[in-house]
Design goal:
106 residues; mainly alpha; Type 1 dockerin domain; globular
Length: 106
């Protein structure tokens, strides 16, 4: 199962880097992460839940990354399906929401 997760993480990383969708969205003098995450699925706190958030979640789920210091807030934002677990299913739901196929809770 871990090998499957690693393949998904690597595929998303390649897609994200190839599409060059990483862009700053903070206002002048403000850094991403300065405010508490307020939107489900928005793990990097840039104001929108997108494929980069899904990638961060997959890295965490595959054991390749750590959540930020405020683990409780991050976990609430990451648990998209409200099953009290952060898994690759949550990442898939973020991607579906980004494609307009799923509606994230507020």
């Amino acid at each position: 199962m871990r090998a499957f997760h690693l393949v998904i993480v690597l595929a998303l990383a390649i897609a994200l880097l190839g599409a060059a969708i990483i862009a700053p969205s903070a206002s002048a003098g403000e850094m991403p992460g300065d405010t508490m995450m307020s939107k489900t699925g928005d793990l990097n706190d840039d104001g929108t839940a997108n494929s980069l958030d899904a990638l961060l979640l997959l890295f965490y789920d595959a054991g390749m990354g750590e959540p930020p210091e405020d683990v409780e807030t991050w976990t609430i934002a990451a648990d998209v399906d409200c099953d009290f677990k952060v898994t690759s299913v949550d990442a898939a739901l973020i991607l579906q929401a980004n494609a307009g196929l799923y509606e994230l809770r507020a």
